[in-house]
Amino acid sequence: MLKEVIATRYITPLREGGSLPGLVEADDFGTYVMKFTGAGQGRKTLVAEVVCGELARRLGFRTPRLVTMRLDPVLGLGEPEQQVQDLLRGSGGTNLGMDFLSGALGFDPLAFEVSAEEAGRIVWFDALVNNVDRSWRNPNLLMWRGGLWLIDHGATMIWHHNWPGAEASAARPYDASDHALARFAPDVAAAAADLAPRVTEDLLAEVTAAIPDVWLADEAGFDTPDELRRAYARTLLARAAGVHERVTGIATEEGK
């Protein structure tokens, strides 16, 4: 389970994201980037953030710590912007927070060097979760404290928007030609050899257990939140075994 905190002050919207996340203080005195159930694709975006963020962390990637954030809609009453007021009013209850990495720099593939090994691990992970939002135009990578951090996984696992077609969707190739790290000759095969065996039923059960029940309730075709959790785990487990063979659009280390 994720730690739960209570949002105590809304500081400012972060307009880099299309869903209008906000910078928020909480009762543990932490500062978080908060993503709201009332924004964009709603709770499915938050589910994707939890599954990908928690899986990435367990596989050794740098990614901000996640928490659930209790939001009282009255927090937005004093906000001068109507869009922000509407978002806060529509997001009462359990939302998602991620540690704010103060002072982090946005990753620029022309300004920073990344090894073929690290690039391969990130491309492999993005292929696993079918991340369509890690392009050179919008890397969703940060440089912080000397390391490369993965952020913003709301646009992943597109199959969970249409569960009847999930198996076919998850089996499709991953086109990495537009990936932010494509120019670094990612060693995807080496990454797969290390990471794929670590994506087990037990690991995925642990990861999906972190999704709050309230974000999984009333999903068509599923009777219980745990049944839906197993569907996420089953799809990712099947994809992990051979997704590296279906990554297209990148040069290999040997082909440099």
Compact description:
With 256 residues, the chain is α+β, with helices and mostly antiparallel strands. The protein is 30% helix and 19% strand.
Structural features, described:
The protein has 256 residues and is α+β, with helices and mostly antiparallel strands. It folds into two domains: 3-99; 105-248, no CATH class. Helix content is 30%, strand content 19%. The chain has helices at 43-58, 82-89, 116-128, 166-170, 188-195, 201-208, 225-242; strands at 3-13, 22-26, 31-35, 66-71, 93-99, 105-106, 141-144, 147-150, 174-175, 247-248. The strands form three sheets. It has a five-stranded mixed beta barrel with strand order 1-2-3-5-4. The protein starts with a strand and ends in an 8-residue tail after the last strand. The mean pLDDT is 93.
What order do the helices and strands follow?
EEEHEHEEHEEHEHHHE
What is the averaged pLDDT score? 93
Quickly count the domains. 2
Secondary structure tally: strands? 10
Strand content: 15-25%
Distance between the amino and carboxyl termini: 43 Å
**General shape:** globular
- Uncertain residue ranges: none
* Number of discrete helical segments: 7
Strand order of the largest sheet: 1-2-3-5-4
**Main sheet: strands, sense, barrel:** 5 strands, mixed, barrel
Integer-rounded radius of gyration: 18 Å
The computed structural class is: alpha+beta
Helix amount? 25-40%
